[in-house]
Amino acid sequence: MFLNQTTHWLTQAFEKVYGLTTDPKQLLLSPTKKEFEGDFTIVVFPFVKELKISPEAIGEAIGTFMKENDADIIDFNVVKGFLNMTYSDDFWIRIAKNIPIGSYGTFPKNGKKVMVEFSSPNTNKPLHLGHIRNILLGWSCTKIFEANGYEVIKTQIINDRGIAICKSMLAWKIFANGNTPSSTSIKGDHFVGEYYVRFEKEFKLEYEGFQYTDMGIAVFEKNKKEGQDFDSFFKEYKNTYFNTYSQLGAEAKQMLLDWEAGDPNTIELWKQMNQWVYSGFDTTYNTLGVTFDKVYYESDTYLLGKDAVQYGLTKNVFYKKEDESIWVDLTDVGMDHKIVQRSDGTSVYMTQDLGTAMMRYKDFQVDNMVYTVADEQDYHFQVLFEILKRLGEPYADGLYHLSYGMVELPQGKMKSREGTVVDADDLIAEVIAEAQNNTIERGEVAEMSIEEQNATVKKIGLGALKYFMIKVQPKKRMIFDPKESVDLQGQTGPYIQNAYVRIKSILRKNDSTASNFDKYLSLQPQEKVLMQLVMEYPNVISQACKDYDPSSVANFAYSLAKEFHKFYHDVRILGAESEEAKSFRLHLCNIISDILQRSMATLGIEMPERM
């Protein structure tokens, strides 16, 4: 936006000097590298082949034209194929005046609608560490889409049915003695999760006992593979045992059948336990500042998709085997044959996802659907999207799988329900506790009331958690370190929050009316660096949307905060050498605080006024 005049004169330069018509998109300007003199650079290598002239010669000719014709360019230099241009102070002053504080980096409504699915947990256990990354990525994508002018529908589909849910229900029925979250003062999702764990514990004991019975030994002798020992056999046989011999397994499967048959007592228990879980989920979502516009439930959607399967058969998208099962052949696009309906007519997950996508489009007529799901489901979504495309769905070209890698902790697990899963609430509490310890050590909130202290610590803790999770490119695996996340000196949320707090402190101390800075004509190098970053912000927001990558916004915010901290240490602001300099620097501080606040808000991070 602010370099349009430069781009105009560059197109004129190539036309006047070489008779070459250029596409403005070819003329990419970027901030000049710090080791070279200049403000913005254009690479001329792409024109060497067509012009058959050395890059140095092209750079000199174009630079000379720009200096003579573009009033903003006061000097230039050429380093190989890089034309580095230096801009006038008047250019920077003009840019600073035209930054629309409060709306900068927000694009007009584009008339498009996008649905983002994220979280989508099961109701047999609490949210865990993996859900945290999922939730934060999905939420920040919704905020980035909104900044780019989209209407956004935030959604999740909750897996509230199936054998795992029945395991929790059965364990509660057998072992709870009527206890509830209220009677035990345990958060609802944790409460239900404990009964899922209890089922697994009791089943393990039952299975271990079976192995040494006469029947267990007979099963081993009859079914073992050649050379297979007792332990390895029963490690593999666990699922078969559950479905064939287990008393607990039989009762859980019967409960599932009762649920599917609509048995009133089973349905009542199912609704009650799910409600406990939803209440627990909502508490965690509220802590994270996350909301949903529409929640879908698998109990409502698991039969969807059968009509789509029949439609696909008539269109020869699917084919039927002799056993009446229905498949799709995707070998022509490098995938395999995929079942979409079993021989007994029941759905598979793919069938359900086809129906759910169609229902969502019917509900909202979206242009795009984004699925925030871990990378272990990459192939599933490749298949789903290809099938929807072959079915001719109008939104099929607007589907995207926001795939992300696993997140782990550096020192094992802080707290685990089953020895394998880190609980989301425990993680949140751990990071807030780390923030509390750091804040107490620094003593910078001592003058606040207890309520203000708690609110500030929560913002710092959650800011640390969210930033640390989001700053890593989604497809990469990551290690989350609670202690490192709250470090005020590293690439962390609190480091960026601290830059914002510093600016707010400066602005509070300024008791004079700002004067005009039109005549401030001796900008410091650090001021230009900050202005260059300011100019990049809209492009960062735009590109983050195109790439579905909130980490680019997180890393931009860090770069801006880092440069501000340097500026704060090296350049006088309130004690500036002139009123014009002071006025400009206060205005620059105001711009930067706005961009820091806005960029962090797209990540779901609140900024404290003091810390």
Summarize the structure in words.
The chain has helices at residues 4-18, 48-51, 55-69, 89-97, 129-147, 163-175, 181-184, 188-211, 214-223, 230-236, 238-244, 247-260, 264-288, 298-301, 306-314, 349-364, 378-390, 424-442, 450-470, 482-485, 493-509, 525-547, 551-570, 579-601; strands spanning 29-31, 40-43, 73-79, 82-87, 113-117, 151-158, 294-297, 319-320, 326-329, 337-341, 368-374, 399-404, 407-408, 478-479. The chain has 611 residues and is an alpha/beta fold. Among the domains are: 4-87, Arginyl tRNA synthetase N-terminal domain (Gyrase A, domain 2), CATH 3.30.1360.70; 162-291, no CATH class; 424-601, Isoleucyl-tRNA Synthetase, Domain 1 (Orthogonal Bundle). The strands form 4 sheets. It has a 5-stranded parallel beta sheet with strand order 7-6-5-11-12, sandwiched between helices. The longest helix has 25 residues, at 264-288. It is globular, with a radius of gyration of 30 Å.
